Amino acid sequence: MGSFRLGGMTLGSLFKKPETLLYPLEEKPAPAGLKGHIVNDVDRCILCGICARVCPAGALAVDKKARTWAIDPFRCVQCASCVAACPKDCLSMDPSATPVAAKRFEVVREVPEQPKEAAAA
Amino acid sequence: MGKATVIPFGPQHPVLPEPLHLDLVVEDETVVDCMPQIGFVHRGLEKLVETRDYNQFIYIAERICGICAMGHSLGYAETVEELMGVEVPKRAEYLRVIWHELSRIHSHLLWLGLAADAFGFESMFMHCWRLRERILDIFEKTTGGRVILSVVKVGGVARDIDAGQMSEILATLEGIKSDYGALMRTLLTDSSIKNRTVGVGAIGYDDAVALSMVGPFARASAVNYDVRSFGRGAYGDLADFQPILDNQGDCYARVKVRCLEVLQSIDIIAELAAKMPAGDIAVPVKGSPADGAQASNVLEQPRGECYYYARGNGTKHLDRMRMRTPTSQNLAGMATALKGCDLADVNMIILTIDPCISCTER
Ligand code: SF4
Ligand code: SF4
C-alpha cells in the first residue's frame, strides 16, 4: 500500500520545521551571489560605454556629454555581462532585488570628473 | 458505435500547464482521432538572432523555456563554440554538465508533481515540489538565479563552484535521495496509480522509431537513444552511461523511466564532482564566426534530443539560428498514443509525454 507509506512521510511533516516561510513576515536571506540589481561605483566610472554596448537588453545608457550613467531596472535581465565587461570594475551585482513598483523609472547617476591619472590608468 | 463528435481540448485547460490545442474526435467515450494545433505562444525568438550579437543571444536562448533554460543556453553555446572553433576548458565542461543534470532533476521533479496532481494525488505533488525547491536553492546559491541561470557563456561558464559549495550540493542531493526514494516507490507501486497508467497510451518500439520520438517518451518504448551516451563534453568521462529503458511503452513505463532518470542524474553529478579537474572556467572568445560557416549540435534536454543549427555571416550577428526541440519531435507520437484511448485518459497520456510547448514554438 504505497499511499500509506507516503502518508507516513506526510504525517511526519506535521512535526518538522515548515518548509515554507510566512512571507512577507519572514524573508529568506539572500545568498551572497544572488543576482539582484546592478550598482555602479560612479567614482571609478570613465563613461567608456562598454557596458551599454554589451547589454543584451538595452537597459544601460551612458551619456558622455552630460556625464551620466543610467540604468532602466525594468529592462535589465540580471545577466551580469556588463559587470564582466567593465574595464574599471566599477559595476557590481547587489544581492537585493529591485523592489516592485507601480511606475517605471530609470536610475540616473551623475559621474563626477575623474582625476586625470585615474582615467588614464 | 456512436456518432463522431469533436471535442476541443485546450489551449486553456486545467491539465495543461501550456497552451496546446487538440481537436479530439470521439465516438462514445473513445478518442478515434486527434489533431494537435500549436501557435499560441510563438515569440519569434530565432529571428532575434539578427538583432543581438552571438554573445547576447545566449540570454535569449535561455528564455525559450523556463524549465529547459540551462539546456538551451548550453546547446546554443556549444553550437557557437563549434562554429568558431573554440575549445572550452575541461572544468567548464564539468560545471556545465553538473548544472544541466541538476536542471534535469528539477524538470523531472516538476513533472512528477504535475503528474501526481493529475492523478489527484495532492500530497505527492507537494512532496515533489518540496524536493524540487532544494534544487532551485542550489541554483540560487551557485549561479545567482533560480530558473534563468545566465551562467553559461560562449567560451565557458561565468561562475565557478568551489569545493565547499560542491560538497554542500552533494549533501543536499544525498538528502533528497532518501525522500525521493519513498516518493518513487509510492509512484511505482501504488495500485491506484497503476490502475490509471498501466497499459494506457501504449506505443510500441516500431511506432516509436517510425515517428522519430525522442527522450524518455521514446526510451519508455525501448528505443535506445540518449544523446548523453555519445559522450560529448564531460559525459565522455563518465565510467559507464547506460540510458534507462523500458519496453512497455505505456504511461507507467514513461513514469518509471523519468523516475529512474532522476537517480541517474544524481549519480552523474556525484561522479563528475569527484573527478572535477582544476583549471580555468572560461577562455576568451574573440572575433566573429566566418561568413558561411555552419555548425550543428545535439543535446539531451530533459524531454529528449534537441538539435541546434547556426550559420555565421562574418559579423558578430549570426545569419541563422535554428532549434528543433524534443516536443516538436514528439507531437506525432502524442497524437498516435491518444488514438483509441478513453477520453478520461487523455490528460494522463499528455502529461506522461511531458510536452513543452514554449520550446516547440519559440
Ligand atoms: S563599462 Fe564601466 S567604466 Fe565603462 S561606462 Fe560602463 S560602468 Fe563606466
Ligand atoms: S545585468 Fe545584463 S541586462 Fe542588466 S544592465 Fe547589465 S548587461 Fe544589461
Structure write-up:
By secondary structure, chain A is an alpha+beta fold. Chain A has a single domain, classed as Alpha-Beta Plaits. Helix content of chain A is 23%, strand content 17%. Chain A is built from 4 helices and 5 strands; from the N terminus they run H-E-H-E-E-H-E-E-H. Chain A has a 3-stranded antiparallel beta sheet. A two-stranded antiparallel ribbon of chain A has the order 1-4. The longest helix of chain A has 13 residues. Chain A is elongated and about 70 Å long. Chain B is globular. In chain B, strand 4 and strand 5 form a beta hairpin. Chain B has 2 domains: 41 residues, no CATH class; 312 residues, Orthogonal Bundle (Cytochrome-c3 Hydrogenase, chain B). Chain B has 362 residues and is of the alpha+beta class. Chain B is 47% helix and 14% strand. A 3-stranded antiparallel beta sheet of chain B has the order 1-2-3. A 3-stranded antiparallel beta sheet of chain B has the order 6-7-8. Chains A and B meet through helix 1 of A and helix 1, helix 4, helix 5 and helix 6 of B. The structure holds iron/sulfur cluster (2 copies). The site of one iron/sulfur cluster has 15 residues of chain A, from helix 3. One iron/sulfur cluster (SF4) binds next to helix 2 of chain A.
